[in-house]
Amino acid sequence: MALNGTRPTRVCVVRQHYVPRDTRVARAVGALTEAGFAVDVVCLRAPGEPAREELGLLRMHRLPLRHRQGGGALGYAVEYAAFLVAATAVVAARHLVARYRLVQIHSLPDVLVLAGLVPRLLGARVLLDLQECMPEFFATKFGVGPTHPVVRLLERLEQRAITLADHAVTPTDQMRAVFVARGADPQRITTIMDGADPSVFVRPAGARPLPGDRHFTLVSHGTVAEHYGLDTVLRAVALLREEIPELRLEVYGDGPDLPRLRALADTLELGDAVRFSGRFVPEAELVDALGRADLGVLAVRRDPFRDVALPGKIFDFIAMGLPVVASRTRSMAETFGDGVELFTSDDPADLARAVRALHHDPARRAELVAAAHARSRPLRWERQRLRYLAVVADLLAGREVAEVESGVSVD
After folding, report:
1. What is the CATH number of the domain that holds 301?
2. Range of the structural domain that residue 188 is part of
3. Cβ of 24: how many Cβ atoms within 10 Å?
4. 165 and 16 belong to one structural domain
């Protein structure tokens, strides 16, 4: 139980990002406050947001720092260092007043675990959420190999961060396996997956296009970034346009790759076959858009970093009853198996093949929906939420965390 006498147990959550835009952090915070914990969140401050905000059991402490996408290695290092120093000071000062029982740190960077050092020395527990593999992120982002000195350094810092925390969680079994292969104790890392929230992603009744509707709509949503491979999707649409004139692509979101993609759509003369929202859309609007689509598309580029990650948007597609076509990554194939239609990453022709096959075969689309629904059942947020709260309860009670692997991957 979260309550200690008449005062709620206090937790501090630290993330170098904008909250609640980070869905994983927002869900964790929601689970904690719903369970009766009082939560302080230390995060970045977006334009127009207040520095301090109190919403029931939730207190937001937004630092006057911004994330600038597209910077070089030095820019990332400066951003990480600035946030680490500021967050460490805020968490330490707040701990003297709030007396946190738990400090939850979300990577990147892994060294952000140091922000919880003062509370830990004073008796608090530290939970590290390894949202991404930082060595693979650096290698992919800056085009260096696994033996690069900085990559090796980041591997050592990752392992040290895990040992400094009382326990760690991570979004996929594949990421957990990477951490363990590098030396982490498997009993110190639990997989908590990013399943869709069924209270939000509910398919509206009658949302699907009626028989005879002239459009066959592909949909993508979230950050519009180069690594999500939307250029591959545009080229696949161009290949199919004459064969399937009713084909449409709708892209909901904003990001650094949007100008390039708009220019590519113009070059390919796609016209009204593609539509960009040009902005992040509210959840209600997104749910409506997904409910009207025919096929969810995930064209993430395969590399060592993304091979072990799993885009959270796939859970949204599945919750909305959409068949999914996705690039073949290790995590996608092992987690969903025959529940998704896979294609070769960065291959517009192979993506066109997959879309063509699903367009022509409604029965196959229905099979994918049923298989994905079955495979995603243990991944839904209502179950993952209970796993997460069990980890928190075990930490606060001083017990060893009982369940670490998700047990959902397939051969």
Report:
1. 3.40.50.2000
2. 3-195+380-397
3. 19
4. yes
404 part of a folded domain: no
- The per-residue pLDDT for range 171-203, each reduced to its tens digit, is 999 999 999 999 999 999 999 998 877 767 766
211 lies in some domain: no
DSSP-assigned beta bridge partners for residue 106: 15, 129
> Quick check: 29 and 39 in contact, CB under 8 A?
yes
Averaged pLDDT score across all residues of the chain: 90
Q: How far apart are CA 221 and CA 278, in angstroms?
A: 11
**Residues 114-159: tens digit of each pLDDT:** 999 999 999 999 999 999 999 999 998 888 999 999 999 999 999 9
Residue 410 confidence class, pLDDT cut points 50, 70, 90: very low
pLDDT for position 210: 44
Classify residue 210: in a domain, yes or no.
Answer: no
User: In sequence order, what DSSP letters do the residues of 17-84 get, joined into one string?
Assistant: S-TTTSHHHHHHHHHHHHTT-EEEEEEE--TT--SEEEETTEEEEEES----TT--HHHHHHHHHHHH
CA 173, distance to chain mean position in Å, is 14
Where b means 16+ CB within 10 Å and e means fewer, 207-237 reads beeeeeeeebbbbbbbbbbebbbbbbbbbbb
pLDDT tens across 318-368, in order?
A: 989 999 999 999 999 999 988 999 999 999 999 999 999 999 999 999 999
DSSP H/E element including 135: helix 134-142
Q: In which residue are the tokens 């050592």 written? A: 156
Choose among 202, 188, 192, 203: nearest CA to 24: 192
pTM of this structure? 0.87
**DSSP secondary structure of 30-42:** HHHHHTT-EEEEE
Q: List, for residues 8-17, the tens digit of each pLDDT value.
A: 999 999 999 9
Supply φ then ψ for residue 268, to 5 degrees.
-80, -5
Select from 309, 313, 373 the least CA-distant residue to 338.
373
For residues 134 and 191, membership in a common domain is answered with yes
Buried b (16+ CB within 10 A) or exposed e, 330-359: bbbbbbbeebbbbbebbbbebbbbbbbebb
